[in-house]
Amino acid sequence: MVADVVGDWREEVIATVAGELRIYTSPIPAMDRRVCLMQDRPYRMRVMMNAMGYTQVPILSYVPEALSPNLNLTIQKEGKANWCRVVVAAPLGKTIKGSLALTAPSGVTLGRSLLTIHLKNGERFAENVSFDGKAARGELIRAVLSLDDGTILRGRVPLGL
Questions:
Q1: Which residues are CB-neighbours of 13 under 8 A, at least 6 positions away?
Q2: For the chain, what are the domain ranges?
Q3: What pLDDT was estimated at residue 55?
Q4: CATH of domain 65-158
Q5: What is the DSSP letter of 104?
Q6: What is the pTM of this model?
Q7: Which residues, in sequence order, are CB contacts of 106 under 8 Å at separation 6+?
Q8: If we measure between CA atoms, which residue out of 133, 132, 141 comes closest to residue 159?
Q9: What are the two backbone dihedrals, phi and then psi, of residue 7, each rounded to the nearest 5 degrees?
Q10: Which tens digits make up the pLDDT trace of 113-136?
Q11: Residues 43, 37: contact at Cβ < 8 Å?
Q12: Residue 44: helix, strand or coil by DSSP?
């Protein structure tokens, strides 16, 4: 089963193995707080349908990205090239403007460390920031998005798990 059973708005994978119940979740802590997905009736109903054997993809009745500013970091590798993909999204009802600062652990060099963000309602900004060097397992690239209205969003992504 795949569902938000822990209640942190991120989905977990629940599996059984001969006498065990296993819950797999991300080792990366959530950087913001949102309402538990199971509180959304259509989502909860689809999870329930899955539990009864009727395969349904759990979907929300709304798009979370449309309600508040979002920051997302992922690591991508293409051959020998390493990228940190940075995605910032503005909610539907609000323009966002500010600066995004990226930091890497010692031994890792970022192609860019400061990005200017200016997005109109509902727009998205995506950029691949190159990085070189080696980091110990679990070290992080961190991002701090400081918006002009005083809002601060933080994100991080591990360099090799």
A1: 1, 2, 23, 24, 25
A2: 2-51, 65-158
A3: 85
A4: 2.60.40.10
A5: -
A6: 0.74
A7: none
A8: 141
A9: 90, 20
A10: 999 999 999 999 999 999 988 877
A11: yes
A12: helix
Rg (CA), the chain: 18
What are 130-149's pLDDT values in tens digits? 998 887 777 899 999 999 99
Q: Give the model confidence (pLDDT) of 2-60 as tens digits.
A: 888 887 778 899 999 999 999 998 877 666 667 788 899 999 999 999 888 888 888 88
Q: Provide CB contacts within 8 A for 51, sequence distance 6+.
A: 1
Residue found under tokens 């797999």: 24
- Which structure tokens are listed for 60? 């929300």
Report phi then psi at 41, rounded to 5. Answer: -55, -50
Lowest mean pLDDT among 74-78, 89-93, 114-118, 120-124: 74-78
Give the 3-state secondary structure of residue 39. Answer: helix
Q: Taking the chain, what is the end-to-end CA distance rounded to the nearest angstrom?
A: 24
